[in-house]
Amino acid sequence: MAPELGRLITDLGERSTYDAASQCSRCGYCEQACPTYVATGRESHSARGRNQLVRQLMEGKLKDPSAAQEALSTCLLCGACSTACYAHVPTADIVLEGRRKLAEEPPALVRLLSWLLIEHPSVLAVLLKCAYAAKRMGLPKLFAPLLRLLGFDALVEADAHVREAPYGFLFEKLRRKQWSENPEWLYFAACGPNYLYPRVGLATVKSLEALRGPGAFLDNGCCGLLSYNYGSIDDARTLAKRAIEAHEKRGKNLPVVADCSSCVAHLKSYPQLFSGEIAWRQRAEAFSDKVRDAVEEFADCELPEGTAKAVTYHESCRACHGQGLRTPKALLKKACGDSFHELPESDVCCGGAGAFSFVNPELSNEVLVRKISKIAVSRAELVLTSSTSCLIQLAHGLKKYYPQGHVMHLSEFIALRLSQGKHELHGKTTRA
Ligand code: SF4
Ligand code: SF4
Hints:
Helix content is 57%, strand content 7%. The chain has helices at residues 17-22, 35-40, 47-59, 67-73, 80-84, 91-102, 108-119, 121-136, 139-142, 144-149, 153-161, 170-176, 191-196, 198-212, 225-230, 233-251, 261-268, 278-290, 294-298, 317-323, 329-336, 356-359, 361-378, 388-401, 410-431; strands at residues 7-10, 13-16, 186-187, 216-217, 256-258, 291-293, 311-313, 382-385, 406-409. It has a 4-stranded parallel sheet, sandwiched between helices. One iron/sulfur cluster binds next to helix 2, helix 3, helix 5 and helix 6.
């Protein structure tokens, strides 16, 4: 059995996982907010059903605990149920505790990845570069039938979903950059921008420098979300401690800004990892207080107006449900004017959810189709969002179902608008 957290921080205070699950009164008020319930119509695939299963699992009342496996593994961990719930029952965390109770050990691939992230990040970088070179040559597609035969279906799905294969990583570029001696903020490179979307991290840094003054790179490792969601709590704690120490070393009063909302929500939840370690709990609280999502950092910034394609905004689950950060409407309306189109159901999950789309491709696709149909209804050509998983999933879905649309991180949009403004300003100055 995998180690569990045992205690969760809920809106009603800290309590045992069992007590947190027992807060669910089974009212069903959150049913229609749950994408997997809406897609399947199955009670076991709703928050109410899942909370009950975890409670019964903990009471030892489930005759066949493996029956809970499918219901718990198909939870997107989106948190929409908690937003809809009057008591904010933390179903996603409860589901993860249930999964840990059921799991003998984390899957081998996750164990390998966690080990590389903790012990040998430079080896991981080399392996990823080899994998990306193979992807650019089309090898995974060529060997897809063999990979499926060997049981690596998730790898085949990952290859089909992920369109990027960058030549260099973000941390390499940021280490070469000249940084200020007196930074006013620190940039935390989450794994998505680091290994998959370096352009997102560069856009965030560029925009922060333009809008918030000089900063510095924290030169951090993984935040530990992969271990928290799919692997071991001990690994998640190790990685959290490293991030906290890195921040304390660089200047613990400086804000830490990151641009993958899933990782930011996890960084903000570090105190929950240390309920039994008072000293680390206090350090985690001090760290989490300083963490900022690029979404909140840019929400009140002044952007030059400009002509734009029809723009809409998809709210990453871990921004809106995980952190309470909603669409930066004032910013987008000011920057885009009438080109900003509201997205119906903007806070409903796109079905990406980390590795969910690779592991549960059919259910993920059902959720995705609904999201893309809403984007089509909005008539947007450009969809903005704030987490790596949404970027992967929406790029995949738009290409497949609505090719006139494309997706971009909010930071990229801001960096682009700032540079357009600079050029326009420069053009005006020259003409004058
Ligand atoms: S999670 Fe909350 S809203 Fe949903 S059934 Fe339980 S108590 Fe009701
Ligand atoms: S976290 Fe999302 S998928 Fe899971 S029960 Fe809640 S609403 Fe449903």
